[in-house]
Amino acid sequence: MGGVLEGVRVLDFGRYIAGPYCATLLAEFGAEVIRVEKRDGSEDRFVAPVGEGGEGALFLQINRNKKCITLDPMKPEGQEVMRRLVATADVVVANLPPQTLRAMKLDYDSLKASKPDIILTTATAFGGPGPWSDRVGFDGVGQVMSGSVYMTGAGDPPYRAAVNWVDFGTALHCAFGTLAALIERGKSGRGQIVEGALLATALSFTNATLIEQAVINVNRVPTGNLGQTAAPADIYRTKDGWVLCQVTGHPLFKRWAKLMGEEDQWLNDPRFADDISRGNNGPVISERMARWCAERTTQEAVDTLGNAMIPTGPVLSPQQALDHPHIRAAGFLRDVDYPGLPKSAPVARAAVRLSETPGEIATRPPTLGEHTELVLAELGYDPAAIAALRQGGII
Q1: Which end of the chain, N or C, is less packed with Cβ atoms under 10 Å?
Q2: Within its chain, how far is the Cα of 160 from the centroid?
Q3: Are 36 and 67 spatial neighbours (Cβ–Cβ below 8 Å)?
Q4: If DSSP states are collapsed to H, E and C, what string results for 93-150?
């Protein structure tokens, strides 16, 4: 496929998001990624089904550019296949609990026995050491334990984000760590363990809020969409929808005051002297912004604010996001065909561009076990041996 990571082979034993998307990012920049699934398909293949075979939207998003084999690694013959696979690999990605890694012989010591310089990239819910190290969890666990959910919404009830930002953030950290480990191996010849954790990601993303609490004991409470440390920062109703406006920093506030035609009123009042003062008096500023937005359509509001270089955006439904002219023109999404889909799937490219060695969505996500025979043949299995493995329920 080419790319900056051409020649790197990754075995993806990941499930759901953190592991598979880490491997996807590596694949998009040229690594050969082999997804290893259960014989009847891993559970993450079927989340939010959209196709005839039950493949889900999440699977289609985060498994492009990969090959797929099926394997039962708990049987002796499956262990032999795994041993041969690992011996050809540079990286193993497995966001599985430590006890599961050991049972599957995907723990670091077992992997090193087959490939001394292997890199193991793993992610758990809680990380370690600590009393919860062996517990399992999903994205929402990180959200609720980081302070993020407590601060979201109006407080009763608290709201978690609908988007799995903890999972995807963990995948990004793991991909970064894997690249660092590959660079180190190129220098020293040593492999190592790259470990992410959902809770660690969530805490890193909410860290400024935690720092503020620890240092000045501010004891903030949720205020819906109203910002607390600057203003105007809120979501405002227009004649035909909603827009977000976020003003942080005095230069932006000066632009906003000029746009309102009320520079003297806003710039000479000590209540609005700096960001934190404006945040403390946010309802006053937001009331003025709300009146301004209510007199305009969404398009008029975002165009006027955008031309004034004030951060803004419309609140879009999923369909409106798909149809938005900038999203379409920028090429953030690529239409990918997949067997059994009624239409192509708009798959998001890696959200970073390299000018000389860009990533690429080169192949659609694999069907279940699509490359099993190809990969096993590369490992030295002849057709009769492959047939015997299939007959024995190994693949």
Answers
A1: N
A2: 16
A3: no
A4: ECCCCHHHHHHCCCCHHHHHHHCCCCEEEEEECCCCCCCCCCCCCCHHHHHHHCCCCC
pLDDT band of 40, cuts 50, 70, 90: very high
How many other CB atoms sit within 10 Å of the CB of residue 190?
Answer: 11
Count of Cβ atoms closer than 10 Å to residue 171 Cβ: 27
* Contact criterion met (CB below 8 Å) for 93 and 121: yes
Taking the CA of residue 212 as centre, how many other CA atoms within 13 Å lie in the half-sphere pointing to its CB? 12
Strands 9-12 and 193-197: unpaired
Please enumerate in sequence order all residues whose Cβ is within 8 A of that of 387, keeping only pairs 6 or more positions apart, or say none. none
What CA–CA distance (Å, rounded) separates 228 from 161?
Answer: 19
CA 205 – CA 163 distance, rounded (Å): 14
* 8 Å CB contact between 258 and 264: no
Name the pTM for this structure. 0.95
Two structure tokens written together for 166: 């903890």
AA letter at 99: Q
329-353 pLDDT, tens per residue? 999 999 999 999 999 999 999 999 9
As a whole number of angstroms, the distance between CA 317 and CA 365 comes to 26
DSSP helix/strand/coil, 326: helix
Give the containing element (helix H, strand E) for 197.
strand 193-197
Cα gap 283→337, rounded to integer Å: 48
SS3 71: coil
For 239-279, write each residue's pLDDT tens digit: 999 999 999 999 999 999 999 999 999 999 999 999 999 99
CA 320, 354, 60: angle at the middle one, nearest 5?
A: 45
Strand, coil or helix: 236: strand
End-to-end CA distance of the chain: 26
Residue type, 123: A
Distances from the Cα of 126 to the Cα of 146, 192, 204, 330, angstroms = 11, 20, 13, 37
In whole angstroms, give the CA distance from residue 138 to residue 87.
Answer: 31
Residue 1 confidence (pLDDT) above 60: no
The neighbouring-strand residues paired with 11 are: 34, 92
Residue 272, token pair as written in the block:
């609005």
Rounded-to-integer distance, Cα 117 and Cα 95, Å: 20
